[in-house]
Amino acid sequence: MDEMEEELKCPVCGSFFREPIILPCSHNICLACARNILVQTPDAESPQSSRASGSGVSDYDYLDLDKMSLYSEADSGYGSYGGFVSAPTTPCQKSPNGVRVFPPSMPPPQQAQHHLLPHTGVLPPVPRNSCLTCPQCHRSLTLDDRGLRGFPKNRVLEGVVDRYQQSKAAALKCQLCEKSPREATVMCEQCDVFYCDPCRLRCHPPRGPLAKHRLVPPAQGRISRRASPRKISTCTEHELENLSMYCVQCKTPVCYQCLEDGKHSTHEVKALGAMWKLHKGQLSQALNVLSDRATEAKEFLVQLRNMVQHIQENGVEFEACLVAQCDALIEALNRRKAQLLSRVTKEHEHKLSVVRDQISHCTVKLRQTTGLMEYCLEVIKENDPSGFLQISDALIRRVHMTENQWGKGSLTPRMSSDFDLTLDSGPLLQTIHQLDFVQMKVPAAPILQLEECCTQTSSATLSWKQPPLSTIAVDGYILELDDGTGGQFREVYVGTEMICTVDGLHFNSTYKSRVKAFNSSGVGQYSKTLVMQTSEMSLPSYGSQTLATVAWFTFDSASAHPDIILSNDNLTVTCNSYDDRVVMGNTGFSRGVHYWEMTIDRYDNHPDPAFGVARADVMKDVMLGKDDKAWAMYVDNNRSWFMHNNSHTNRTDGGISKGATVGVLLDFTRGILLFLINDEQQGPVAFNTLEGMYYPAISLNRNVQVTLHSGLPIPDFYTPGESEAAGSVC
């Protein structure tokens, strides 16, 4: 009940309601607070609003009240009402619901006695042209001669406040303390107010008329207040009359006198008790809906709180993963750094080795050259011509040879001191700058849009969407259906569209469908499974007999051979080629019993049309039955044969001509296929052990034209087997 406490507090004083009155805007206010926020307006500026007892409510807002000097301190935090109780420069406060209010000053001594006598029926007079403004919606109202008595008292709210206060086990508080209420020490039974000692001495002195009031302990006062009888509501127009009827037009309780000579005399009225029960029921219904919303909100809050915890856990986990990934990158960079440093070290050692070898070599050669030079100089100093000439040629050759060993031109080092290696860090820096998060999660489960999903006789349309808060990229969707018998799911659509129509389903069958999304990271979870029921089609009733459930179909122009010519709403077929061409029906069958006929409209030059059933991938440019995808009977003007996989069996006399009728009966309850010509069975059972999906089919050339008749009842001579499921014929 703690959440209800704010509903029980006055928007002006911030305390629990005491003698609440109902304003025409449906808001409540304490009677004493209403007197304290009255504004007296000059006669010339009196707003032309409705009286308290009127049916309309003034819409004056704070702009109008500014003109009437409601407060004029330029929103400085202080204001004055210009009324009869509020002193200027009274500090403005805020009530618990955030409404700006101006608490009254203490009433003058001569008015205090009236202020503390709320139950005597004697109220101080209200100044003329007084204006009251609702502190919540800011609508203003000019009071009439009755003043605040023109507003009805909210006895229900007063009772709820009493019960709420009685349910609290805390000590009773003083009702006149302005800031932090102190514990009450006494209660005045006449004033119905709890006082602490300071407030009792200040507001309830033991002299004058107040000396006769009875002061009791707070606990006793609570008991007496609880035991006091509930006050009977009286009419605001006729104070001596009890409210006994309800005006439907004005939506307010009224008395009998209001109906006789008041403004409600021409209005529709109803019994107060009946309307009380009616409105209680309406409120209960509204509360049930609101309760459901509140329950949903509580569950949603639990979900949000769980999300907060999950976000925190996922955040910590994600941060740890990010740090680990960055550490791995740093480790890889350090390993590469070590490898590059190793290469630099090798290059450094290689350069030093080459230069040192060159230094050693040059040092040896220089020492040899210097020795030779010094020796030659000493030889030149000798004065013996014959001895000099004996060795001069050899010395000259040695000098030239030594000079040639140094090479021509200037000496150059074998190795440069610069390192020719340059680290190409540009791509890596660019990659680091481009390092960002990518979507690596699989998509969330799609949501099937039930309002857009529907089924027809042999098809189903499904629509789905991504969850509203999902931001994960989706590359496509996979739609799966079962086989209509509770078997395994199979893929029927893969693509980017979010709506798909699946054709070729069984009549009167129950299918389960589901969809999932995928992206580059993988395949997401399945959506919720949707159960769909395909419809059935029946022949009309004749008298008291209802014919069996049957399936209607036509020839399928989309899958027919290009040489096929269709007309009559795809019920009549012929061909523009001399070769046999195949056309199939637009509906496949895998369960039930089905019978259809074809009338021969044209038959020239004795051709061999073939009638039967086929798989969806049957060959279309050969006679029906030539491959292993078709089971057929081909017939000429004298005889017929059954054919499957180019195997001819059961030659039977009897052919067709113009006007003849060929019937095909497919019974999955027994797994057989048989044929009729002119309502007579042609040969034995043609094929058996048929299982799976089959389409009605026919092959013909330009010499034949036939018309299809589908959805026919089973011939009288034939008794089908037991169905796999009652009522299932497809």
How would you explain this protein's 3D organization?
It is a single chain. With 730 residues, the protein is an alpha+beta fold. The chain contains 10 helices and 41 strands. It has a 7-stranded antiparallel beta sheet with strand order 29-30-41-32-37-38-39, with no helix packed on it. Helix 8 packs antiparallel against helix 9. The protein is flat, with a radius of gyration of 53 Å. GO terms for molecular function: zinc ion binding. Keywords: Coiled coil, Cytoplasm, Cytoskeleton, Metal-binding, Repeat, Ubl conjugation pathway, Zinc, Zinc-finger.
What is the spatial order of strands in the main beta sheet?
A: 29-30-41-32-37-38-39
Give the low-pLDDT segments: 44-122, 538-548, 723-730
Relative helix content: 25-40%
Oligomeric state of this protein = single chain
Q: How much strand?
A: 15-25%
Mass-distribution shape: flat
Mean pLDDT: 80
GO molecular function, one term: zinc ion binding
Domain B box-type: 169-218, 230-272
Domain B30.2/SPRY: 533-717
Domain Fibronectin type-III: 442-537
Layout of helices and strands, plus pairs?
Blueprint: E1 20-22, E2 28-30, H1 31-36, E3 39-40, H2 62-67, E4 78-79, E5 90-91, E6 93-94, E7 100-101, H3 109-115, E8 130-133, E9 140-142, H4 155-167, E10 186-188, E11 193-195, H5 197-203, E12 215-216, H6 218-227, E13 245-247, E14 252-254, H7 256-261, E15 269-271, H8 272-380, H9 385-406, H10 426-433, E16 447-448, E17 454-455, E18 459-465, E19 476-481, E20 490-495, E21 499-503, E22 510-519, E23 522-526, E24 530-533, E25 537-538, E26 541-542, E27 545-546, E28 549-550, E29 564-567, E30 572-575, E31 581-584, E32 593-603, E33 610-614, E34 630-635, E35 639-644, E36 647-653, E37 661-667, E38 672-677, E39 680-681, E40 695-700, E41 704-709
Antiparallel strand pairs: 1-2, 3-8, 4-5, 6-7, 8-9, 10-11, 10-12, 13-14, 13-15, 16-18, 17-18, 18-21, 19-20, 19-22, 22-23, 22-24, 25-28, 26-27, 29-30, 30-41, 31-40, 32-37, 32-41, 33-34, 33-40, 34-35, 35-36, 37-38, 38-39
Helix pairs in contact: 8-9
